[in-house]
Amino acid sequence: MIPAGDIPAVTVVIVTWNCRDLALRCLRELAAADLPGGREVIVVDNASADGTAAALAQAFPDVRVIANTANTGFAAANNQALALARGRYALLLNPDAFPTAADSLASLVACLDADQRLAAAGCRLVHEDGRHQVGDAGWRPGFWSLSLHALGLTQVLPRRLRGVFLVRPDALGPGPVGVDWICGACMLVRMDAVRQVGGLDAGFFMYAEDVEWGCRLRAAGLGVAYLPRSRVLHLQGGTQGGVASTRWLDNLVRLHCVLNGRGSLPLLRPVLATGFALRALAYRLVALRPGGAAARGRARVMWQFARHAWRLAPGPVA
């Protein structure tokens, strides 16, 4: 940490909810990470029932802990901290996200330092076994980008077919790769850009608020970069008990309607449902091989998405 009178280069923003042990680990690993220019850390706890706020305040007295009395959602809680940030940059970091190397986060700072046209940058998010975690970056949600993702076609030609989610980052070159949005689990954003376009849209309680923010930055003429070679471990769903949710799909379709109108929605529903159903079938076939338990699990998730797509409820569109 740096003396209170000094201005840090980076304000680290962490939003917590019933994840005491993960948050303690996150802060320990963050302390060992290289962040040039100094950092301040602000934790906003969304009314955890497991003593997260008290445990963090006791273990890390230099960290500013804000204990909300209600769960205000991911976007609103991040905005609370952004309003207090003193750094040139703000690093949004999930409590279940951990740098895999000491310089993983420093590479994001170097990226924004090197190009003043960039508003935000993010790392490759990986699972514990090192596999790329789809959902760490991508492109503006629209009829084609959502359809390509559901049908799984982006895996075939990742350079040409840009789905809403970036896939196969090794096929995209060393980077930085220009994208439309970065996952809020680990995103470095220039505070001047935040002041220009505003914070996260609190109308998205959870999921797709980072996608909306990136699209808003891009609409303002600012760049967003993805660094395939810098890696951060993300225990996806670690703060939610690993429960598969369909809210991400509702919110992405809602955002698509905000950006592009509702005209394609009647056709988009069956396309998404068909795409996810075909992927469920493909996983079921893979699961027939020995050791196919993981594929069976993926098939169940894809079938859940397919059924949900038929009755998509994107919510109110302004």
* Oligomeric category: single chain
What's the CATH H-level homologous superfamily of the largest domain?
A: Spore Coat Polysaccharide Biosynthesis Protein SpsA, Chain A
Overall outline: globular
Q: Work out the helicity level.
A: 25-40%
- Our measurement of the CA-to-CA distance between the termini, rounded to an integer number of angstroms, reads 42 Å
**Topology pattern, helix = H, strand = E:** EHEHEHEEHEEHEEEHHEHHH
Kindly estimate the percentage of residues that lie in beta strands according to DSSP.
15-25%
The helix tally amounts to: 10
What CATH architecture label of the largest domain applies?
Answer: Alpha-Beta Complex
- What class do helices, strands and sheet pairing give? alpha/beta
**Got a strand count?**
11
The CATH topology annotation of the largest domain reads as Spore Coat Polysaccharide Biosynthesis Protein SpsA, Chain A
Topology:
Elements: E1 10-16, H1 20-32, E2 39-46, H2 52-59, E3 64-68, H3 74-82, E4 89-93, E5 97-99, H4 104-114, E6 118-126, E7 137-138, H5 143-151, E8 177-178, E9 181-182, E10 186-190, H6 191-197, H7 209-219, E11 223-234, H8 247-260, H9 265-286, H10 293-310
Helix pairs in contact: 1-2, 5-9, 9-10
